[in-house]
């Protein structure tokens, strides 16, 4: 079962389902973002797996696990994914029997076969994910294009892990700079079955699509040759956009509509703390390169950190405005507060741990306070406004205008008039915006709560 996977049809369920069914096991898949926990029958299962690929999923699982343990007394409960190992002690305290990481398949098969994890099972080859018993793609997040057209979105993975060591990234303590390419024939077959279900746009879920540029481009060439009408989006580092600028026209030729990139901040000091490998000026260069190639750059941010000042936040909004990114940035990206989970490489910064409060099981992270209490007050107001505007159906420009006013008032500045022509071009938007390294919004927790 998957508590939550960013509005996507869960790959974290479909791939283990394929492996297990190929070995004759009966597998039932439950996506808790679209269904509630079964009321009965859970005690008939041998093993129950819970996918914890992100922070929000883990927060939701904390409320789920005690009830799951009561209803499935005879089952072995296994939690797996990026967020499982860092929270091992907490999960075991909630009744979990086995904790596995994101490369869990071998150990899961060994466990079910009666072997010890890591022993007695040959290396598992990637299989075509089995999506047959998941809800149809039409029930998941869709893509909205300028002009009102909607596209059904499929979700594929071409690689796992990442070569980089950004300090705030939850992948780093688990993969430690390693990544693994998924065979092209598996990715293409997975795309094909989702296109057959009605997908006209594919979202690549790789942490960075250009970790292996040769693998990525060969894959895209095949997909485009077979289905030239299919569009896609991918996540690519700012530094990769600059390094591989010659590949950008080819991405557009193959159908790329937009690139998500973890810009995080325009402040070079903050970027240094996060070890992002790019500067604030590099973000502007990447925006220009992507636009010149006929695509949209959709940057994500972590605007509130222990190092953020009120002036920093005003500068962030100013740069977003001046670069014409207002329509390209999901408003929630301008409200995110830095998350520091167990095992984070941020804890390796000399003296940083001393600035934090003790680990909190409630938020699955180390709480922190900005030295300037006004910054934390502003963050709370920003998040409340973003959620209020989203609930009222407000557009990105209107939402940004509210943030602009809040930021300048908090900094004691006169509120400058915004230039409407700086909003930037209308851009493709997923109906459920992607983001990571952050606490979930109250709306997400309420919508995905067990039994809701």
TrEMBL record:
One GO cellular component term noted in the UniProt record for this chain: cytosol
Pfam families given in the database record: Radical_SAM (PF04055)
Keyword vocabulary terms for this entry: Iron, Iron-sulfur, Metal-binding, S-adenosyl-L-methionine
Named cofactor requirement(s): [4Fe-4S] cluster
InterPro entries hit by this protein: BchE-like, Elp3/MiaA/NifB-like_rSAM, rSAM, rSAM_CUAEP, rSAM_horseshoe, rSAM_sf
Top-level taxon of the source organism: Bacteria
Keyword Iron-sulfur: yes
PROSITE patterns with a match to the protein in the record: RADICAL_SAM
Domain Radical SAM core: residue ranges: 148-367
A Gene Ontology molecular function term of the record: iron-sulfur cluster binding
Annotated protein name in UniProt: Radical SAM protein
Lineage of source species: Bacteria, Pseudomonadati, Pseudomonadota, Gammaproteobacteria, Acidiferrobacterales
């Amino acid at each position: 079962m998957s508590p939550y996977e960013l509005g996507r049809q869960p790959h974290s369920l479909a791939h283990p389902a394929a492996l297990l069914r190929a070995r004759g096991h009966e597998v039932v898949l439950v996506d808790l973002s679209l269904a509630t926990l079964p009321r009965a029958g859970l005690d008939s299962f041998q093993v129950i797996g819970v996918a914890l690929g992100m922070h929000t999923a883990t927060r939701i699982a904390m409320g789920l696990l005690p009830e799951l343990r009561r209803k499935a007394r005879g089952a072995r409960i296994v939690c797996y994914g990026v967020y499982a190992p860092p929270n091992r002690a907490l999960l075991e305290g909630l009744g979990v029997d086995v904790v596995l990481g994101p490369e869990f398949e071998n150990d899961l098969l060994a466990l079910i076969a009666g072997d010890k994890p890591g022993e007695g099972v040959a290396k598992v080859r990637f299989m075509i994910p089995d999506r047959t018993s998941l809800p149809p793609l039409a029930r998941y997040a869709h893509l909205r294009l300028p002009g009102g057209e909607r596209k059904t979105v499929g979700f594929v993975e071409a690689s796992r892990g990442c070569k980089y060591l950004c300090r705030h990234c939850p992948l780093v303590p688990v993969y430690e700079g390693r990544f693994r390419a998924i065979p092209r024939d598996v990715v293409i077959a997975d795309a094909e079955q989702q296109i057959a279900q009605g997908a006209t746009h594919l979202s690549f879920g790789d942490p960075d699509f250009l970790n292996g540029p040769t693998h990525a481009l060969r894959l895209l060439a095949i997909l485009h040759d077979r289905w030239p009408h299919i569009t896609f989006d991918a996540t690519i580092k700012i530094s990769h956009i600059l390094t591989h600028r010659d590949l950008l026209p080819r991405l557009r030729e193959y159908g790329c509509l937009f690139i998500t990139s973890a810009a995080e901040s325009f402040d070079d000091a903050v970027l240094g703390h996060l070890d992002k490998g790019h500067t604030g000026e590099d973000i502007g260069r990447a925006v220009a390169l992507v636009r010149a190639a006929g695509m949209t750059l959709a940057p994500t941010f972590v605007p509130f950190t222990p190092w953020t000042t009120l002036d920093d936040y005003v500068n962030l909004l100013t740069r977003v405005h001046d670069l014409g990114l207002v329509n390209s940035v999901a408003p929630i990206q301008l409200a995110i507060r830095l998350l520091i989970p167990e095992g984070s490489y941020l804890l390796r910064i000399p003296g940083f741990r001393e600035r934090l409060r003790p680990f909190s099981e409630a938020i699955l992270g180390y709480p922190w306070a900005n030295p300037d209490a006004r910054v934390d007050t502003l963050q709370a107001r920003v998040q409340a406004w973003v959620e209020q505007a989203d609930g009222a159906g407000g557009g990105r420009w209107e939402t940004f205008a509210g943030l602009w006013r809040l930021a300048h008032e908090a900094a004691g500045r006169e509120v400058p008039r915004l230039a409407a022509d700086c909003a930037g071009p209308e851009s493709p938007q997923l109906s459920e915006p992607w983001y990571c390294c952050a606490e979930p919004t109250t709306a997400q927790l309420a919508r995905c709560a067990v039994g809701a």
